[in-house]
Amino acid sequence: xxxxxxxxxxxxxxxxxxxxxxxxxxxxxxxxxxxxxxxxxxxxxxxxxxxxxxxxxxxxxxxxxxxxxxxxxxxxxxxxxxxxxxxxxxxxxxxxxxxxxxxxxxxxxxxxxxxxxxxxxxxxxxxxxxxxxxxxxxxxxxxxxxxxxxxxxxxxxxxxxxxxxxxxxxxxxxxxxxxxxxxxxxxxxxxxxxxxxxxxxxxxxxxxxxxxxxxxxxxxxxxxxxxxxxxxxxxxxxxxxxxxxxxxxxxxxxxxxxxxxxxxxxxxxxxxxxxxxxxxxxxxxxxxxxxxxxxxxxxxxxxx
Length: 304
What we know:
The protein is of the alpha+beta class. It is about 35% helix and about 25% strand. It has two domains: about 20-165, SH3 type barrels, CATH 2.30.30.40; about 180-300, endopeptidase fold (from Nostoc punctiforme), CATH 3.90.1720.10. A six-stranded antiparallel sheet has the order 13-18-14-15-16-17. Strands 8-7-6-3-9 form a five-stranded antiparallel sheet. A three-stranded antiparallel sheet has the order 4-5-10. The chain starts with a helix and ends with a strand. Keywords: Hydrolase, Protease, Thiol protease.
């Protein structure tokens, strides 16, 4: 074989085995092919073969210096996505991603994806995150409308189990403090109004007791006296002691403050403090003050 022919055969052989830059082997059929431009093509090929795609397949720089490895939580507004310690629903959860939260893909993308978000690293169910080109587009939109230097500064990150516990504890503390503040404020209001009621009721000490009466000056029975005193302050009470037993809120005698009702079997009076009540006592004594514990107390009601 002459040298020209031999050189020609060598050239044909070399050309036939050469792989040009950009060529890769498809896992599905082992054929050489130049992939289409764009990471969406890489993603489509990966899922079609059933093989997990490496994080490096996602890398694509953006104008902000970020990389194409972002993921966004894709769950309903009132739900969240667990980050688990292992790629299994039975594994312990180490954090939570709320709607729209951002994370970074740091492991293969398959049924489960390993991510890092804030201080939390673990696995999320891939079905509930947005990745690839859609995630890049969302990140680009967010960054174009934000002055933040990094996407994680513009959107929320995961909340770890420890961070959630601390947050809930702080929320409980604030709720308790607010409840205590409101209770103190209410007690102060009750005390002020209650004392005003007592002062008003005591003006009628010495006036007559009249069965069935409601007049603070001309005569009243026990329930009529109480009803008329409270009516002066815009508080409407039932006419009889049996109905007044269910007015307002029941409290213990130890909690009684001036202005509370002290009810007995068939009798009622207004607590004035120091274990005493002002009341329409009976026909012989009229309106006056007696010990609050002189009879068996049936109930104490706060109506202010």
